[in-house]
Design goal:
alpha/beta, 225 residues, 28% strand, 11 strands, BirA Bifunctional Protein, domain 2, 22% helix
Length: 225
């Protein structure tokens, strides 16, 4: 898999380039992994609802909202966040979408381990979460005491939204490293009211986004193989 570091790029042309790459694929087109960072932008998934954007006034500080064809609801991308877009032929690689999601999440968990942080899955909520009171604890999550609040005590550190067409993937994942987290207060992240969103810096981990991107790329290439 070829790893392509795009640097900081606007979201919309990157989205269009992913679409074009996927639509032009043949059975022999090589798989690629695109790494990048985006200027501030809110993106809506296919199921995205306008009411999940709570506050985004026009004028200074306004953040564009882009409608996409990925799964999921609204999320935020911005500087200090590592974004990865795997462009894969799943049929050629020999597994299905559910396993693809599992492998992506496992790569994120392994990347967090590199930083000393323990990442967790939450059933029915794609992405990776951490314990806010002790993000370094290794114990597995237990069933939530209140099923109506499955995120109590948790913060989301990585988001996942994918698109699969003709067995080929695009869109992908984002991992929060050292961001301005305030734009998350303007949305219900991934459609969940009150869901806390964190980055590694807020957890006390000082690490460069470029280092995290390199580690994440290594794990994605290994786990998506």
């Amino acid at each position: 898999m070829k790893v392509v570091d795009l640097g900081r790029v606007d979201y919309e042309p990157t989205f269009q380039a992913m679409q074009a790459y996927t639509e032009a694929r043949t059975p022999d087109t090589p798989d690629e992994l695109w790494l990048c960072e985006h200027p501030p932008v809110f993106t809506q998934g296919l199921a995205g609802k306008a009411e999940h954007v709570l506050l985004n006034p026009p004028g200074p500080g306004h953040i564009p909202v882009v409608q996409t064809n990925r799964g999921g609801q609204v999320t935020y991308h911005g500087p200090g966040q590592v974004v990865a877009y795997p462009l894969l032929d799943l049929r050629r690689r020999g597994y299905f979408v559910k396993e693809y999601v599992y492998r992506i999440e496992e790569a994120i968990i392994r990347t967090l381990m590199h930083c000393g942080v323990t990442g967790h899955r939450v059933a029915g909520a794609p992405g990776i979460y951490v314990r806010l009171h002790d993000p370094f604890a290794h114990a597995a999550l237990t069933e939530p005491a209140n099923p109506a609040d499955p995120f109590k005590g948790l913060g989301k550190v990585a988001a996942l939204g994918i698109k699969v067409t003709r067995h080929c993937t695009y869109h992908g994942l984002s991992l929060n490293v050292a961001m301005d987290l305030s734009p998350y207060t303007r949305i219900n992240p991934c459609g969940y009211n009150g869901l806390a969103t964190v980055d590694l810096a807020a957890l006390g981990v000082q690490v460069a986004p470029a280092e995290v991107a390199a580690v994440l790329a290594t794990h994605l290439v290994q786990r998506l193989g």
